Amino acid sequence: MVDVCLLGCGGMMPLPDRRLTALLFRCGGKMLLIDCGEGTQVSVKMTGWGFKAIEAILLTHYHADHIAGLPGLLSTIGNSGREEPLTLFGPPGLRQVVAGLTVIVPALPFDILLAELPPDCLSVGHVGDIHVSCMPVEHTTPCFAYCLELKRAGRFDVEKAQSLAVPKAFWKRLQNGETVEYKGGRYTPDMVLGKERKGIKVAYCTDTRPTEGLVNFCRDADLFICEGMYGEDEKLPDAALKKHMTFSEAAGLAKKSGSKELWLTHFSPSVKDPELYLENAAKIFENSVAGRDLMMKTLHFE
After folding, report:
1. From CA 210, how far away is CA 199, in angstroms rounded?
2. Rounded CA gap, 287 and 291, in Å?
3. Residue 159 pLDDT
4. Which residues have CB under 8 Å from 38's CB, separation 6+?
5. Residue 174 has what pLDDT?
């Protein structure tokens, strides 16, 4: 299972009851953070999940409402007793941005590893047990959407293992994903496992126009977290100009991609109460939810 927490759902500027953009993803005691808007460390503290277990931070882009909370968060992670390196991922420009932001936190007790992703990057790789993929989106600056997936191996197939004469002593190791070399032979997990089962997929997309590429990228997501900068359809010209989305556009992506649930986030400060506009999304994609700070959900394997 995985836990997801929407730490902040504001765009542009924080409000008294709305912090800026960030999402925390927890699996097996390890956590990934996407974006780090102003106030992120306060929200992390309020979850009770701690700071030390954050394995990596994935940055969508470098507008202030997505990264201004980074120096304070890094300082707090250092004060939590962390000594292991922390990896930051992001589009081109990561090194320059982090160099500037960390001027005010120069003495961290852990190393920061920077993984600057190429502009056309489609895969980050594995961070612990989580497979992270990405894709460039259509914003006013280089920006990525991310998918976090917990894969699920196929069921153990006794008949298959026996038919291939796989020694029983290796079954457990192979079931756990290991490859075993023995007396010149090589045994692989696919020799004892059936077809891969459906895992858990969380897609996260802010600061972009809707595209067909996003439909495929978010295909069959268990949870699709997507920006809804503007609630009213009448705001479409503003959304198009500033490379953002309306509630109805986000709902269209959720419907086309076959996602199970949509959380709207990254609201404009002008959207005082997102619930007032939720019908604009729900009429297109019924299982639409207006995000709020510290909204949490636990996702289980089917």
Report:
1. 25
2. 12
3. 85
4. 14, 19, 20, 64, 65, 68, 69
5. 87
* Residues in CB range of 50: below 8 A, 6 or more apart: 80
Q: What pLDDT is stored for residue 164 in this prediction?
A: 87
186 and 70: one domain?
no
- CATH label of the domain that carries residue 263: 3.60.15.10
Q: Can you give the residue range of the structural domain that contains 75?
A: 2-153+196-299
Q: Which amino acid is at 277?
A: Y
Q: Choose, from 35, 65, 207, 222, the residue flagged as catalytic.
A: 65
**Residues 21 and 137 grouped into a single domain:** yes
Q: Let me know if 65 is a catalytic residue.
A: yes
What confidence score (pLDDT) does residue 110 get? 96
pLDDT confidence of residue 177: 80
pLDDT the model gives residue 192: 87
Question: 185 and 98 share a domain?
Answer: no
Where the chain has pLDDT below 70, the residues are none
Verify that 148 and 210 share a domain, yes or no: yes
β-pairing, 112-116 vs 123-127, is: unpaired
Residues 159 and 290 in one domain: no
pLDDT of residue 172: 87
Type of residue numbered 51: F
- Alpha helices (H) along the chain: 40-47, 64-67, 70-79, 94-101, 158-163, 171-175, 212-217, 236-242, 247-257, 278-282
